[in-house]
């Protein structure tokens, strides 16, 4: 049995080898299509599997002369199966289920989020090397937290060990999905706030797709984008409510920093060698440091509920349709 990632970024399967050969003949899969043997970890191009060589050659011979098949394949390339878009995201249900999950499994869910927060916070407030290491391991750690929460949601046995369960074959894809999404969205925030915010929203399911389904990182980001854009406003509403404490604090922090800069640096001559400038900079750094610590504490309190709520939304979009062919 095999799993396959289609041209729409969606994972299909498990299916038999004969079904895969039919899809090859219908030009729904080609030698570049990623497949995975059920139970395995590695995704490989179909062209590397000798058992499909004859089917691929036969399909390629008919491709140039089959205009109808090319048109159908082009149409399917950007298509998400209707199961992903038919049911509107129940925002309040996701929030309510997320809160109830914490009540039923408080020790594990809150403890797991707190342990992850503690490790990453120690790295972030340590040396520059610690910050780099923290950036590299954030994806696998958040992926492990995702796996742990999903197990609890699905009624499976879960433990704190799940936090470190993806430090194997899934480490690199999870590191890439975290680093790429973080770097690109932070650049968007610095250059113009709205693009950065938009990227954070549309890629919200990228990491769970890699952690749960072992999708390649770019396919996961693209599938997350396609899914969110189909129900953009409900997803935005969910994220606003799930992360409301953190968003309120960040708004407060921006206001505090803005007031300080306006009061202390507006019209200032910026004589970098002066004692007055050094005093103002010392005061600014103390304020920024205090706000940073406070923000981390708010994140600690907000993270369990936000994670649970977002993963219930993930289950709504993906769990029920995984393995179904549109």
Largest sheet, described in full? 4 strands, antiparallel
Number of helices: 13
- Write out the strand line-up for the largest beta sheet, numbering strands in chain order: 2-1-3-4
Mean pLDDT: 82
Order of helices and strands: EEHEEHHHHHHHHHHHH
Question: Which range best describes the helical content: under 10%, 10-25%, 25-40%, 40-55%, 55-70% or over 70%?
Answer: 55-70%
**Overall body shape:** elongated
Architecture overview:
The structure is a single chain. The protein is mostly helical and 326 residues long. The chain has two domains: 2-79, Dna Ligase, domain 1 (2-Layer Sandwich); 91-240 and 299-319, no CATH class. The chain contains 13 helices and four strands. The chain has helices at 17-25, 53-63, 67-77, 91-104, 106-124, 128-153, 171-191, 193-202, 206-213, 217-230, 232-242, 244-265, 275-319, and strands spanning 2-5, 11-15, 34-37, 44-45. It has a four-stranded antiparallel β-sheet. The radius of gyration is 23 Å and the shape is elongated. 31% of the residues are buried.
Would you kindly provide a brief summary of this structure?
The protein is mainly alpha-helical and 326 residues long. It contains 13 helices and four strands. The chain has helices at residues 17-25, 53-63, 67-77, 91-104, 106-124, 128-153, 171-191, 193-202, 206-213, 217-230, 232-242, 244-265, 275-319; strands spanning 2-5, 11-15, 34-37, 44-45.
């Amino acid at each position: 049995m095999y799993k396959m990632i289609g041209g729409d970024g969606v994972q299909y399967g498990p299916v038999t080898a004969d079904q895969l050969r039919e899809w090859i003949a219908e030009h729904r899969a080609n030698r570049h299509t990623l497949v995975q043997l059920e139970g395995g970890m590695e995704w490989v191009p179909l062209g590397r599997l000798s058992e499909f060589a004859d089917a691929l050659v036969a399909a390629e011979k008919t491709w140039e002369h089959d205009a109808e098949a090319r048109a159908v394949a082009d149409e399917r390339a950007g298509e998400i199966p209707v199961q992903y878009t038919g049911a509107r995201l129940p925002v309040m249900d996701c929030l309510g289920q997320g809160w109830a999950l914490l009540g039923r499994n408080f020790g594990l869910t809150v403890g797991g989020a707190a342990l992850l927060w503690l490790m990453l916070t120690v790295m972030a407030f340590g040396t520059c090397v610690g910050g780099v290491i923290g950036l590299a391991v954030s994806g696998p750690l958040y992926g492990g937290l995702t796996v742990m929460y999903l197990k609890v949601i699905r009624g499976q046995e879960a433990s704190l060990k799940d936090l470190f369960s993806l430090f194997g074959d899934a480490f690199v894809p999870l590191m890439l999905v975290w680093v790429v999404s973080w770097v690109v969205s932070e650049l968007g925030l610095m250059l113009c706030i709205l693009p950065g915010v938009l990227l954070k929203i549309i890629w919200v399911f990228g990491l769970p797709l890699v952690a749960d389904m072992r999708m390649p990182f770019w396919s996961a980001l693209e599938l997350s984008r396609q899914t969110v854009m189909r129900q953009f406003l409900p997803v935005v509403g969910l994220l606003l409510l799930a992360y409301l404490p953190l968003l309120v604090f960040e708004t407060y922090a921006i206001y505090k920093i803005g007031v300080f800069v306006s009061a202390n640096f507006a019209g200032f001559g910026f004589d970098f060698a002066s004692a007055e400038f050094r005093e103002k900079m010392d005061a600014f750094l103390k304020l920024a440091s205090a706000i940073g610590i406070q923000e981390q504490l708010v994140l600690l309190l907000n993270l369990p509920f936000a994670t649970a709520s977002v993963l219930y939304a993930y289950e709504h979009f993906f769990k029920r349709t995984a393995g179904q062919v549109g």
